[in-house]
Write a structure and sequence with these properties.
single chain; alpha/beta; Quinone Oxidoreductase, Chain A, domain 1; Rossmann fold; 2 domains; seven-stranded mixed sheet; six-stranded parallel sheet; 28% helix; 24% strand; globular
């Protein structure tokens, strides 16, 4: 099979021929149909400082069709369409540990314990390949999804399910209720755009889409009359006023991205109504100085969210299948597997509700 493979931290990502994956107990083999190529992938694969567990086939997430099933697996069958969730957990509710397959990212406190090392070594390779072997516990069956397998564009668009589910997990963690006002910070990114779609589908009365790219914000406003836009400035107090002038959000979703500046998050915090909830999920690369006394007095809730649970993907699939989330609003640029550098370069140019989908 062909796969996007990185031999060492110093070597470039390349498309190579590898042996087909071998079925193991508790696993399935999946023919990969579509994987979202994130805009940040170039920075990840070109860095010698990000500790990717090389050598590896890179990639987490995507959708595929089950081609082989181990005898002890009863949750899926051959021919099923599944999402490739890729979050591998140790199964210990008292002391949970997890690893993101295909990237080696460690959850929790980030400690590389013996358990984490065993998971990373045992399930190293990811989904940017023609086939993948994956634990059956790390996929979600997409009921009646088989009808997408005969049409290339719908399958390519299903690569966006991964981002929708990550965004939806943040919305689920916020405990958003029907009628709530939701502010999405960084709404012009792919994660932010996904969060806007999910908040609308879950019944928000108003979604405040905040970002710096005005044309991208306007595209979100054109989706639904419930979307109001805020063009962010470089000033925390001014941004707080701009958000608050529309409404005080019950929920604030941080989708700012890998920023080195906390100001946008602080503006969202300041605009949030009393007893509101903020969910941090963007991977901002700095500490955020939230005022302790204000959190206490205003009874605010601050949560973190990373990746998603299988039941969240199942909810996203129901929303997509029912039309509550319309993938016609998402633009896809389809790439093949032969030229990873060109695909990654294309991904870096897209944002919002436009993305690159690898169809290997």
């Amino acid at each position: 099979m062909k796969a996007w493979y990185k031999e060492t931290l110093d070597s470039p990502l390349a498309c190579v021929e590898l042996p087909d994956p071998t079925l193991r107990p508790g696993s399935i083999v999946v023919d990969v149909l579509a994987v979202h190529v994130p805009a940040y992938l170039a920075a990840m694969v070109d860095s010698t400082e990000i500790p990717l567990p090389v050598p590896l086939v890179i990639g987490a997430g995507g959708v595929g069709k089950v081609s082989e099933v181990a005898g002890d697996v009863h949750s899926v069958k051959c021919g099923d369409l599944v999402s490739l969730d890729c979050l591998l957990e140790n199964g210990n509710a008292d002391s949970p540990e997890d690893v993101l397959m295909g990237l080696g990212e460690i959850g929790g406190k980030g400690a590389e314990t013996e358990t984490v090392k065993a998971i990373r070594d045992g399930w190293r390779d990811g989904t940017m390949a023609q086939r993948v072997v994956i634990p059956a516990t790390a996929v979600t069956r997409l009921p009646k999804g088989e009808r997408y397998a005969d049409s290339s564009e719908p399958v390519a668009k299903l690569g966006f399910l991964t981002w929708l589910a990550i965004a939806a997990e943040g919305v689920v963690q916020s405990d958003q209720r029907p009628g709530d006002v939701v502010a999405v910070l960084g709404a012009t990114g792919q994660m932010g755009g996904a969060a806007v779609l999910v908040a609308l589908a879950r019944g928000a009365s108003r979604v405040i889409a905040a970002g710096r790219n005005e044309p991208a914000l306007q595209r979100l406003a054109d989706l639904d009359e419930r979307v109001s836009i805020v063009v962010l400035s470089g000033n925390v107090e001014e941004n707080t006023k701009r958000i608050s002038s529309i409404a005080s959000p019950h929920v604030v979703i941080d989708a700012v991205g890998g920023s080195d500046n906390p100001d946008v998050i602080l503006a969202g915090f300041g605009a949030m109504r009393d007893s509101g909830t903020m969910v941090l999920m963007s991977g901002t690369r700095c500490d955020v100085p939230l005022p302790y006394g204000e959190v206490l007095r205003r009874r605010l809730t601050i949560k973190g969210s990373r990746m998603y649970k299988s039941q969240t993907m199942a909810e996203v699939w129901r929303m997509v299948s029912s039309g509550l989330i319309n993938l016609a609003n998402v633009d896809v640029h389809v790439v093949g597997i032969d030229d990873p550098r060109a695909a990654i370069a294309a991904a870096a140019q897209l944002t919002g509700l436009s993305f690159v989908s690898l169809t290997p």
